[in-house]
Amino acid sequence: MKIRNLIGAAGALLFLLAGCSIPSGSVQTQKPYVAVITKSTSSAFWKSVQSGVKAAASEYNLDYTFEGPANEEAWEDQNTLIQNAIDNGAQAIVISAIDYTAPAELIDQAADQGVHIIIIDSDIQTDRAAIRIGTDNYRAGEAAARALFDGGGDELYIGIVGFDIHSENGQKREQGFEAAAARESRAHIVEKINCSSQSETVQAETRRLLLRHPEINAIVTFNELTTLGVGHAIEELGLRDTVRVVGFDNNVVSVGMLETGEIDVLIVQNPFAMGYLGLEAAFQLINGQQPDADHIDTEVRAIGREDMYTEQNQKFLFSFTQNQ
After folding, report:
1. How many Å is the Cα radius of gyration of the chain?
2. For residue range 286-313, what is the model confidence (pLDDT) as tens digits?
3. Distance between CA 320 and CA 14 in Å, rounded?
4. Are strands 218-221 and 156-162 parallel, antiparallel or unpaired?
């Protein structure tokens, strides 16, 4: 069975398969070379993207590098990786951009030199990308709002914990959430904060937010590392029974927090599919084929404590779940 047919079910399982790519600067010439440049490489989300990349590279006989900066705010370092990919003769670049505008000029230069551009996860201000693959982030923000409102209760006094204000996907999620909140009479946004995507920093900022506004009884946050920071702050302050939290993404810690109550709902994406489909599109473009669409929505799933153990949700949540 082709791996493409298993994308939805096998994404979580293949977190375990994140393997080594070829070293930067030692690209083999007998296969097409694709540079995959992400916001980071350390979190569970990016390891799952890497698993999808590895699976597709094996299936389509591609060489690749998989690189990202040390943190998800270092756009200058990401630009250096783009330039390195161009200099090293990449035939395609698959990229999730830290900053919406900062890499645009380099990406356009790469396209001018014949490099195929595939954007995954987070967009860039360019019209030179052949395809964009990832979550519909505005709709994901709306999904987070529905998950919060469906939890019941009376008036909701909401704290929003966002991440890098220059990151397109985070801004779209926030916009979708706020638009849905504006239609909900129970929803009152108390304060919005933006944090660097480092869980310790987010924990400290969330703690200050909650102490500053003890009326807050709901928090929404929009990526893996901010979700972890918020969860740790809820645990630290003993607020699991009084503050409803909706977060994004999943790793073993956030899933544990879902089980024990620091987090109430996770909006789970499909990063494996982003990586796999990004490499598949690169293969098609390198071989003169046009992908079937210029946008692919990899969809999301809202998973709460009450349904986290269903078979389908386990496949999304747990990297150790095997698919029969």
Report:
1. 20
2. 999 999 999 999 989 999 999 999 988 8
3. 9
4. parallel
